[in-house]
Amino acid sequence: MGTKAILTGDSTRSVHEEEPYDEETGSIIAPIYETATFGFTKAEEVPAAIAGKRGWVYSRWDNPTVVRLERKVAAFEKGEDGAAFSSGMAAISTSLFSFLKKGDHVVGIKDLYGGTFSMLHSVLPGIGIETVLVDTTDPDAMSDAVKKNTKIVYIESPTNPTLKLVDIRKSTRLAHDNGALLLIDNTFASPINQNPIELGADVVLHSATKFLNGHADLIAGVAVSSKERAHRIKLTRREFGGTLDPLPAWLVLRGMKTMAIRVRQQTKNAQAIAEFLSGHRKVARVNYPGLKSHPQHSLAKRQMKGFGGMLSFEVKGTMKTAMRFTESLKVGSLAASLGGVETLVSQPSNMTHTQMTAKERADTEIPDTLVRVSVGIEDEEDLLKDFGRALDSA
Ligand SMILES: Cc1ncc(COP(=O)(O)O)c(C=O)c1O
Hints:
- The structure is a single chain.
- By secondary structure, the chain is an alpha/beta fold.
- 39% of the residues lie in helices and 15% in strands.
- The protein is built from 15 helices and twelve strands.
- The chain has helices spanning 10-16, 46-50, 64-76, 88-99, 114-126, 139-145, 168-177, 190-193, 227-240, 246-256, 259-278, 297-303, 319-328, 358-363, 380-393, and strands at residues 81-85, 105-109, 130-134, 150-156, 181-185, 203-207, 221-225, 283-287, 310-315, 333-334, 344-346, 370-374.
């Protein structure tokens, strides 16, 4: 394979980044080191391996296949290193616990993935870490919430499921001015459409289950940061134990080879569906940062390279109307996940955001009539026909 110098385009990098020939056999595909532990022939080599200076010890700590994935995601996110986990939530929780202790304070946003919302709203306060969730699109609210003991500002952008944006540069400046770290979940955008580290973020989190892997066939997560912080996250990971296994790590590496072409097609399809829905008589509102009508469209243009494969919309009618729409699709399917090659729709109020009360959902503009769409790579015409037909029968 070529040298790093020619790995400039996203598709070229998707295929070749961190994919050297196997030294021993010349295999063009990286081997899977599906092993729990690594042996030594000389006892005197053990201390250097334990200290992380040379060699490998135990796959809950580090594994060559997993490290390859961590470096690949880090390269795409313009970070120095990464840590791979057995789920996106393991990446998020372990990263939070790497930088927090009892008595610390966290500022988050109200619009968060349900699992993260629960972590910030219930789990952290339960162990003496104070948290506050502020209005997602109001930088003043975030600034007012920061206190002396704030250690982390935690954001998602675009948010799940309402596709609101947070100004990443502004939030980073606010966090840094107060000696805190900015952690961001970049799952919805994918590294093809947004690179928060370039905008100052300290830790970028991914549910690798989604766009990174892209095939809805495994659960994984990655945290990317500086070398030092990634190391700290990996040390916490050793004790929490949520390290990714080598086989799914290898599958994510395989999935990532098509990441750029998948995400480009998903982004193109999402724009077409968003425009189609915007003009539809049975649709009350469409949330997609690529629409000129999106209240933060100009921020989207500033901080995103593409507007992404996720959108949501409110159908006119009742929860039942939305349910009928989701059941009536023939190309798309009703399922909770996102970021795969197949189009999936879900109803956040009874699927992904059930950890929130009805009032909390109302506060963050998640009505029962909201449908979230993870747009796949199918042909645009088929998707538009499918959505039109399902809306007519809803
Ligand atoms: C934005 C976002 N972050 C994190 C997660 C959690 O990821 P995982 O299911 O891989 O633990 C999800 C899951 O849907 C998500 O949508």
